[in-house]
Amino acid sequence: MADLNQRDPFSRRVTYLVGGLLILRIIYAAIFPVNPAGDEAYYWDWGRQIDYGYYSKPPMIAWIYAFVDWVGGGSLFAIRVAALLFGTLALLLLHRLTRSLFDSETAWIAALIAAVAPANSVLSFFLTIDAPLIVFWSTALWMFWRVLSGEGKTGSWILLFLALGFGHLTKQMMMVFPVLAIGYLLLHSKTRRHLRKPVLWITLLGSYLSLIPPLIWNAQNEWITFTHTKHHFVDASDGGNVILERIEDFFSFLGTQLGVLGPGTAVVLFPICLVLLPKIRKLSAPVRFLLVFGALPLAGMLLMALRQGLQPNWPAVFYVSCFALTAAWYAGHVRPKFPPQAMRKHLPVSVAISIALVAFFYFGPILFQAIGKDGHKADPSRRVLGHDLVAEEFEKIRRTQSHAGELFLVTLGHRDIASHLAFGLPDHPRLYRWESSGTIVSQYEIWNNPEEDGFVGKDALVLAPHMEKLPSRFARGFTKVEKLDEFTVRFSYNRERTFSVFRASGLKAWPKDPPRKKNQ
Fold first, then answer.
1. Cα–Cα distance between 382 and 369 in angstroms, integer?
2. Per residue in 119-162, pLDDT tens?
3. CB–CB of 450/444 below 8 Å?
4. Per-residue burial over 70-88, b = 16 or more CB atoms within 10 Å of its CB, e = otherwise
């Protein structure tokens, strides 16, 4: 930000806003440690076994976790700092993009409404795939506009190529960017001339070469990422009234987006995008640019929501452009018939509502804990509570065992049990997971099992959701199985979970065969 003119009050505001948020978030992360979310612990475990492909995603998030773990010595604080650095960088990139498209005032408004959006707080706290993805997407957007507008030269083409390549390695959604880029160029005669530039095609299509490593990995692992991704687009109807289900899915998706964006921002952002979209070819180049990379795919998401349930974070990258477009409306650069221009004066109210939601995200858990209702369904931290206590109780039992350091550890149940336990135990051991269905449903089924890692004849300590004895298929893989203990952990003020701990002696062979059907 060294090039920001100190005589520009709007750029100074952005500096104070983003810098202040960065400092406050670092202080919060240091004072109020929060358990890693399920995906965070899962990706952290990926980072301990570096590869060029993984079960559900390309490898970038694992590489990032490996680096953060190396720099931060395995601390949760390092993970939190990495997340807030990505979130901060995303705001700065949005500011620079919007300033290139319009002016400093519009860029200030874009940074403001994005900074107070609850989504940015989540993005800056939990280190998941969306944090780096939005940084790479925003960089690609800015660099692409620079080269089209003549501001950027060779360096901008290189940064565009790198941002696209790193984005492809982060999440499958990045693959849409080159398609949207070509679509934007085709829309108008003044931009079609760029299609004759070889550097454009080398950059956009060449970026897909970064996918070669994960493609090779998938070819070696039964194309498991493709299989996993495909199920997101399968009709998940439960056999009831299909029309009612579709309506419910649609409004459920819209409801989550109110929380993601902040209600005040959402009620103007969606109408602006949808009202301007039919006029896309008649609008100025900056507005067309934002509509193609924001409103157009967002409209596609809304149509998908009429067919199936969508994850709240799926449109995340499209909101980069939508924030800039909304800021342009507030600054008067676009004037659709709806929302009415009179609503522009309500920007302070919209910002205040979002700030209240963000304050609840950060301090709601503290309030619920103070009144003894931590984990309440309204508690923002309810999904991350209790996992550290499971690790503590398991470690107590583990210490009582003979030759405890030689035991390999196994979990049954959801993959989160394995990843949280690996993160929570003081020595961060390697955790194995047994999947009762005999199919691959997580990264744990792809990694080596204990037999392949040379534990034949060794004993295991097994953690499972409450049960009196282990499944017979699992037990047959060992010489002897005995239940050691069980413990109950309070996950919230009204929800407890009981876990059972077994010692399985003398591994004979890791049970991998799927269960037989009842008629066999």
1. 11
2. 999 999 999 999 999 999 999 999 999 999 999 899 999 999 99
3. no
4. eeeeeebebbbbbbbbbbb
Rg (CA), the chain: 25
Alpha-carbon span 334 to 321, nearest angstrom: 14
Which residue segments constitute the domains of the chain, with CATH numbers given?
34-220+241-356 (no CATH), 386-507 (3.40.47)
Question: CA separation (Å) from 44 to 39, 48, 67, 133, 376?
Answer: 8, 7, 10, 17, 27
Let me know: does 305 contact 247? Beta carbons within 8 Å: no
Describe the strand order of the beta sheet including 478-492 as a list of residue ranges. 431-433, 408-411, 460-465, 495-507, 478-492
The three-point CA angle 382-386-392 to 5° equals 165
124 contacts: CB under 8 Å, gap ≥ 6: 21, 25, 83, 84, 86, 87, 88, 131
C-alpha 346/C-alpha 344 separation (Å) is 5
**Residue 516 reports pLDDT greater than 90:** no
pTM of the model: 0.95
Kindly give the pairing relationship between strand 478-492 and strand 495-507. Answer: antiparallel
Tell me how crowded residue 384 is: count the other CB atoms within 10 A of its CB.
21
User: How long, in residues, is the chain?
Assistant: 520
Helix runs in 48-153, H state only = 60-72, 76-101, 104-115, 118-123, 130-149
